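Bumping with the actual sequence this time:
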Amino acid sequence: MKGLVARLWRMLRGSVQWRVLWLANATFMVGVTGVVRDGEGRMLLLRHRLWPEGRQWGFPTGFAVKGEDFRQTVVREVREETGLDVEPGRLVRLRSGYRLRVEVAFEAQLTGGTLEIDPFEILEARWCTLDDLPQGMQPVHRALALGDETA
C-alpha cells in the first residue's frame, strides 16, 4: 500500500503536490514581534489600541505578509507603528500552538527616525527599563523583556 501511495505521489508533481500538502496541513498566520532597544538599553513599549483591556502594553507587533522575510516584518511594523527605524538582530522566540498562528520575535536595535505613533493602532509609546515596565503588559512580552525566551 505504501509503495502505491509513493508512486501516486511522484506522479502528481510540483504544484499539485503543493496543493495537496496545503489542504492536508494547517495554514498559519505569522505574528512577528520586535524587542526594540535604544542605545541606552531601554525597550520600546507600545500601548496597542486593538488589544484587550488590561493587556494593551507590549512590543511592536504585527503579521507578516506573504513572502516577507520576518526580519523585514519587524522593520516594517516598527516603522508603521512608530516612525522609527530599526536593525533586526537575533531570533529570540519561535513558537506555534496558537490555533492558526505562529509567533516569532527578534531583538532589534534603534537606528533612527522620529517617534510618531500611528494613532489608529497605538495609543501611547514609551522607552522603559526593566525597573519601569508598565502594568497591563502582555505576559509573553513581559517574559521577552525579562529575557525568558521559553515563555
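The C-alpha cells above came from a reply further down the thread. The chain has four helices and seven strands.
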